[in-house]
Amino acid sequence: MLDYEAVRRRETAASIVSGADYSIWRYLPLLPVQDPGCLDTPMRSVGWTPVFRSILLEGQLGLRYVWIKDESRNPTASFKDRASAVVVARAREISAGVVVTASTGNAGAALAGMAAAAGQRSVIFAPRNAPPAKIAQLLVYGAEVILVDGNYDQAFDLSIQAAQEFGWYCRNTGYNPFTLEGKKTAAFEIWEQVLLPFGNTFGRPLSIFVSVGDGNIISGIHKGFLDLQQLGWLEAMPRLFAVQAAGSCAVANAWLAKTEVIVPVAAKTLADSISVDLPRDGIRAVRAVNQTGGACLIVEDGQILEAVARLGKIGVFAEPAGAAAFAGLVQALDQGLINREDPVLVLNTGSGLKDTRAAMAAVRPAPVIEPTLPALKRYMASHP
């Protein structure tokens, strides 16, 4: 936990937002690690991802304000770079020889990329059926990749056993507390990019839609806002909405049952990044929703693919897990959980290039024609 009094003695909201470092390291006074150095490497460009206001989506959805925060702009193209950068910084502080994690792809790619930038050895356990593009990233970054003939949860358990057996530093989500500290930086950015410039005009809290697998992202964002609130820098706590795929909804099931008991499921969804049997940070995810007046939403894979296509039409190429958050927004509107006056931000957690098979399933295939003008005219006549 932050020493809030010490931070208040050294910093003000103005001193933080006036920083010239547009990355997660602008928030170094609010992080439990030292500056990792690694100048002029991808480690220094994690975070400060763009927020787009979509007038088109506002019109389609009947909402006054809709923002998309696009985490695909991170160095390895996902939100997970935030956690991995902080974990690698911590690994350097304690002179860890090897950092290990389990991942369906994004967390592993983030760790592999940040470790490569810092000259740190990494070992990644991934399910053998993880998307090939994600496995390619791990290998290209030079990580030691071990594919597990099982699911994410089995890879998770094996990675912890390996860390204990060989003395490796484990990055695992919901296991290493520094992952939460990295992920909370997204809350700091939303505070700077949306709440400070627009907050006084809302008259009601910002509603943030976050896809949830292990639960660590929404828990981290909640912690970031709690830090800002404790420092006296946040006027109104945003509402956090957790969105889960129907085939992997242990957190939502607990919330709907009004309990903090997380019962594992047999996860099966095309949104591999949020496909989890037992969410390792599920309790804190439920609390993040409850303590902010949000809700949990469950969306089908078909709705996720529709969301991939809709986000594409505003220029955002989201992987299924990222698009799930937008599908949750659509469902929240249908259920009356938010209304026209509620300002909304949707978090896209990763790039659609991570899973092109799912992307192709979300759209019509491109036609193939003969390379002649008559063939083109025939096609245009049949597709006005």
Describe this structure in words.
The chain has 384 residues and is an alpha/beta fold. The chain has two domains: 9-73 and 180-361, 3-Layer(aba) Sandwich (Rossmann fold), CATH 3.40.50.1100; 77-176, Rossmann fold, CATH 3.40.50.1100. It has helices at residues 4-10, 13-17, 55-61, 81-93, 106-118, 132-140, 152-166, 177-183, 185-202, 216-231, 250-256, 282-292, 301-312, 320-334, 356-361, 373-382; strands spanning 51-53, 66-70, 98-102, 121-127, 144-148, 169-170, 207-211, 239-245, 295-299, 344-348. The strands form two sheets. It has a six-stranded mixed beta sheet with strand order 1-2-10-7-8-9, sandwiched between helices. Strands 5-4-3-6 form a four-stranded parallel beta sheet, with helices on both faces. Strand 3, helix 5 and strand 4 (121-127) form a beta-alpha-beta unit. The model has no long low-confidence stretch (mean pLDDT 96).
